[in-house]
Write a structure and sequence with these properties.
The complex is a heterodimer. By secondary structure, chain A is mostly beta strands. Chain A has strands at about 5, 10-15, 20-25, 30-40, 45-50, 55-60, 65-70, 75-80, 85-95, 100-105, 110. Chain A contains no helices and eleven strands. In chain A, the strands form two sheets. In chain A, strands 2, 4, 5, 6, 9, 10 and 11 form a seven-stranded mixed beta sheet that branches. A four-stranded antiparallel beta sheet of chain A has the order 1-3-8-7, with no helix packed on it. The termini of chain A are far apart. By secondary structure, chain B is mainly β. Classes of the chains: A mainly beta, B mainly beta.
């Protein structure tokens, strides 16, 4: 069966420090991968999606970047964190092609101090 | 612009009451519609989905949703809620691309 892992579960980082959040998927090949930010009362905001290795699409201009170095690995990064980067970050995958249901990871709670 | 709206932000019901959560979307052309649920301390998971065909879709745990194209709606229903249905519910839409759009969510609290 397919599983999705995210780490760390929680993270507290000072302003200006770098960020690296990792997401890996097991049990499937060629998944579409997604990074979302979830804010209370604001739903899920799509940040990045990827349909293949090295292929990243950004949905909103921001201080963050994403990379997909392997088929089932998706990384969310920042060179210098801002206070406004605090939030709950979710990774998800779906089957190849558009319009498929998504499967979500447990999320990472990021607090920038 | 494409959007998904959920008008009920917080809902409180007693056990055995009926539930209907509203979801409206703004999309041109074909749209795929989803309801996801997030139980306390758990991952977001799919409740049900609509791609085409019968507009009345049945999902897990007795939930159903009806796609009404003329109203751009995809409301979620359950005839009799249980305490274990306490969760946050998200409506989402996608037009066959990879740009899923989620509503702001509805927090349901069911009183035992």
């Amino acid at each position: 069966s397919q599983t999705i892992h995210q780490w760390p579960a929680t993270l507290v980082q000072p302003v200006g420090s770098p960020l690296s959040l990792e997401c890996t998927v097991e049990g499937t090949s060629n998944p579409n991968l997604y990074w979302y930010r979830q804010a209370a009362g604001r739903g899920l905001q799509l940040l990045f999606y990827s349909v293949g290795i090295g292929q990243i699409s950004s949905e909103v201009p921001q201080n963050l970047s994403a990379s997909r170095p392997q088929d089932r690995q998706f990384i969310l990064s920042s060179k210098k964190l801002l206070l406004s980067d605090s939030g709950f970050y979710l990774c998800a995958w779906s089957g190849f092609g558009g319009g498929n249901e998504q499967y979500f990871g447990p999320g990472t709670r990021l607090t920038v101090t | 612009a494409q959007s998904v709206s959920q008008h009920n932000h917080h809902v409180i019901l007693s056990e055995a009451a009926s539930l209907e959560l509203g979801c409206n979307y703004s999309y041109g052309g074909t749209v795929n519609l989803f309801w996801y649920v997030q139980y306390p301390g758990q991952h977001l998971q799919l409740l049900l989905k609509y791609f085409s065909g019968d507009p009345l879709v049945k999902g897990i745990k007795g939930f159903e949703a009806e796609f009404i194209k003329s109203k751009f709606s995809f409301n979620l229903r359950k005839p009799s809620v249980q305490w274990s249905d306490t969760a946050e519910y998200f409506c989402a839409a996608d037009s066959g691309t990879y740009k899923y759009i989620f509503g702001t969510g509805t927090r349901l609290k069911v009183l035992a």
